[in-house]
Every structure is written in C-alpha cells, then in structure tokens.
Amino acid sequence: MGYLLAPRAPPETVTRTVPVTTTVTQTVTVTPTAPPPQPVAKYPRAKLANISELQPKRPVTKQYAGVNVWVVKLGERAVGGVGPDGDVVAFANLCTHMGGPLVYDPQTNCAICQIHYTQFDLARGGKVVTGHATEFLPQVVLEFDERTGDIYAVGINQLVYGKFSNL
Amino acid sequence: MCQFCNVGCGYDVYVWPAGEEGGLKPGEHGVVYRLRDQVYGGELTPQSTDFTKLAPLTHAQGIPWISEAMVVRTIRRDWRRGRGTGEWREVYVAQIPSPECPINLGDHSIRGGTNGERNWSPWNEAGARRLKQPMVRFGGRLEAVPWDYAIDLVARVVKGVIDRWGVDNPKWGRKGHAVFAHRMDHGGGGGGAMIENTAAGLFFFYGVRTAFARIHNRAFFGPEDPAIGDAGPGAMNNSLHDLRLADVIIYWGANPFTAGTVMFIEHALANLRGQTAEEKRRWFAGEPVVDTYMIIVDPRETETVEAAKAAAPDRVLHLAPEPGTDIVLANAIARVIYERYRDTVEKILAVYRQAAQRGFKWDENAWRLHLEEALEINKKTLDQYLAEAERITGVPRRDIEKAAEIIGAPKPGGAPKRVWLMYEKGVIWN
What we know:
The structure holds 2 protein chains of 2 kinds.
Chain A: E1 46-50, E2 60-64, E3 67-73, E4 88-92, E5 102-105, E6 110-113, E7 119-121, E8 127-130, E9 140-144, E10 150-156
Antiparallel strand pairs in A: 1-10, 2-3, 3-4, 5-6, 6-7, 7-8, 9-10
Chain B: E1 11-17, E2 35-36, E3 43-44, E4 71-77, E5 88-97, H1 125-128, E6 135-138, E7 141-144, H2 147-165, E8 181-183, H3 188-191, H4 198-208, E9 213-215, H5 240-245, E10 248-252, H6 256-259, H7 261-272, H8 277-283, E11 293-297, H9 303-311, E12 316-319, H10 326-340, H11 342-356, H12 364-374, H13 382-393, H14 397-408, E13 419-423, H15 425-428
Parallel strand pairs in B: 8-9, 10-11, 10-13, 11-12
Antiparallel strand pairs in B: 1-5, 2-3, 4-5, 6-7
Helix pairs in contact in B: 10-13, 10-14
C-alpha cells in the first residue's frame, strides 16, 4: 500500500493560514422556569455543648436540627474550627456514601465508615481522604461564646445523608 | 452504564423539566423499581420509591439516596419532532446507581457517584470550557483552528516522520521504526467503550508501517493468551456471582478497593463478612458453608489490604513479594499444595481431563513440564524449594504454607474449596 496520507512532494506555494481567534456566542433561548424556591425554614441557633465538657480527641454525640452530630476537640487547628485553639468542630456522623456508621480515629483526626471504609478528614472540612463518598462529610457551622464557653450550632453546610432538605 | 472503570455498574437515568421535580412520596415522582431476581434472590417490592425517610443502605431495598453529585441542571431540546429537535428547555438529569443492577445493587464508587454532575451543562465549569474546535499552540498560546487544518497538520507530521525514519527510507531500512504508537483500546463502561482495533491497526501497520504499536496493557498489538489457556478455561471465565459464592478470594496484583471499587465493597466484602451464606446454601446444596478467606498479593499495603483486614482481621492473608518475583511465589504455593493436598489436586485434574474429552483444551505435556521444570518435584525437596522461594521473594515460608493450606485444604466433607482468583496489572507483565 502506498502512502495515501499526504502528497509526496510539498506544494509549490505554501500558504500559511493564521487562524484568527473568534469568540462564538451561542444564544440559547430557554423558556422561563419557576422562580428559585424560597427557603421554607431557617436553621435554628442551638447550644451544642460547653467547651469544658470536651476532652481532646473524644467526640461527643449531640442532636442538632434532627441530625446526630459529633462535637470533637481535634487538637489541631481545623477548617471551621472554633474555640480558643480553633479546633472544635462538629459533623453529621452518617457517611455520605451509603449512610454507614462512622468511627473516629484520634491518630489521624479522621472519621472512618465501618461498612465500606470511606475516610473523612475532620480537620479539613470533612474532605474525603479515601473511599467512595462523593460528598464531604457535612459540617456544622459553629459559633463560640468566649464569655461562657458555650458552643452554638447555627447551620449545616450541605445535605446530610438520606435527606433532600436538611430541614 | 457507568462511564468509568471496568466493573460496569448500572445507572438509571431520569430527565425531567425544571420545575417538575414532584415530591418525595411514592406516586409523586417517577423513580420506579420493580425487580424479581432469580440469581441473588433479591426482590425489590417498592413499586414506587418512598424517599421521605432514608435509612442507611436502603439502596438495597430499592430506595437509594440521590446525592447532589448525581444530579445536574442542564439544557436539552424539547424533542418535539423527534430526538434532538425543538426548543432548548431547562432540565434536570439524574444518574442514580440502579438497585436493579446485579453488578452494583444501588451502590457506587467515588467515580460512579459523579456520573450525573459530569453531564454537559452550560452552568458547570467543564461544560462552559468544553472544547469544540481543535487547538494548536502558536507562540506558546493555544489557538482554535479548523478541523481541516488540524487533520492536515497531523498528516504532515506523520508523513514527515515516515519519510525521514520509516521503513522505506534507504538509510534506515528495516531498522527504521521511529514511530511508537500506544493505543488506548478500551477503558470505562464495564470493560470497553471501544475495542475497535481494525481501523487503528490498518493505520499503524499499513499506513505508517511501524511494528511498534501496542495496546494499553501489553507490549504488543494483539490479544492476551495467559497460560491458563493450556488448562482449558480462558482467562475471563467467571462472573461477580462466582465472587459471592467463593470460599477463597485471591487478589493477585489487583487493588480493587481503589480501582474496581464496587466489585470489592459490594460483593467481596459481603462474602468475606458471611452475608452470602444463604446464597451459597441455595446454589450448593449439601456443601458446608465455611468462613471465607482472602489472600491479597501485593508488594504494597494497599487500601484493599487495609479494608479487608478491617472487615475480617484473622481471615485475610497479605503476601508482599519483592516486585517481579510473583512467579516464584506462585510456584512455591503450588508446590506446597501439590505435596500436601494431593487429593485436591487430583480432583481438579479429573475435572480438566474430563472436560478435555468434551472438547476443552488440556495440555498433558504442559502439566508434566509444570511439575518437573517449574515446581522441580524431582530436583529439589520441598524444604529446599521453599527456602529458595523465601530467599527470592522475601515472603516468609510459613505464609507460603498458610496460603497453600487456605487454598488446598478441603472443606469438612471432602469437597475442595471454591477458589476465585483475580490477577491484574500488578502481575500481568511478570
């Protein structure tokens, strides 16, 4: 088989085409849809715990807005952490993969699911370290009252497993 | 079917116009499961799913949680006069792991769970930056070019290489093979989106005339032919169902927790934890159900090893040979089985020889050579053989013997163990 890809000899004249960059705007007509839904409820502001009852690296289970949450003092400065050391965090304690139970590992400050072993880093916003969850572990937004040492929950930053609306 | 890895999980796709989501209660939405499964014995009775209160693992009962990664807001034509016609409409597309699929049973991996949000959408970043024109770098900057230009450019480059360094060049002759082609021939979607090698083969072998073309996982452009072919069965002779029913699971050079996730977390772990005992009793009536063992051969302590050990700490054996010494390890285990569990060996041989009478391939000469040259039954004693294997592989002798015992020792009642072996890229090129 001969070479069918390109002529053997270069052409006599070489015309160099310089492409011009053009911006193509594609106009898409979309029929108007329903307006975005208004929030039907707001997150409550609820006291979760007092800092004095938290021992380092010992999660405490509390309830917030109908969700089981862990409050834990991690011992390292954490994303979303409150308190004098910025290390008190709270997370929903259901794995976002298939809702399995989480176990806290003090050495890595991670939560590890016992069904399929997905691992979340509690010091880094519940990021998935390894495993199968496509969503971070939902983190409770906290406020800390320095006078009393009370830790308040004021919201959850994403959908908890099993819910289509947190509230 | 999922677009990612080799396992091939099933996904249900739902498309609905924005604003018509419906509700969570049965009958308020369009998600319907109806399954009566003869193989696993599963039955999804909910005809229309109740999403109001989801407990963990309810995907197995036909109520999967639909996470945000499974849904995308995008646009689609309204198909008024058939596919792809009509006005653009805002729609939602959901790709939900299917509880009806026997591969994943509603489970997903970290890749598959994002199938939904990876659909093209003008509102997500990937969609907005989607390439529509080929691009060429001019002066360090990528510029869009027409298709004709791009094809002509590639053709000129390939032709230039052929002219300078190809087989026909008198200065190079047969030694001239400067084109090295690595062709990705299959990938996601359950084992192959495209194993079409004809056109690529014609291009590389007739057009470019290079001998150096290979497929993704081997050094040449052809099919695999593992030695197991000498014993009759081809390489891919079992299904995920066999994995659920096995007594011994062996992963050799494979890391399924990471790379073939759902096969491992849904089926292998279920077997390891004893959750498939009822299925085993149904399929193998009369055979006792024993505790499942797992052997993982990998020089690294992978996530598969850690997860398996977390699930069954005393029934998982991890062998970590020196890289490249897997053949020595395999032969050492084989030699111990041959010496100590001869009954098992004879039973398996009888099956192969019988099958050979019905047209399956069985190479008696290869078997003899295996015993004499590979296992060296007449040249070295078992002690000598194991000592050498331990020295070469670094795997302690007692672990080799333990592996052989796990595989070779019969179950109570005398039936040999049902052993499921998966070997993958970690060992394919040993």
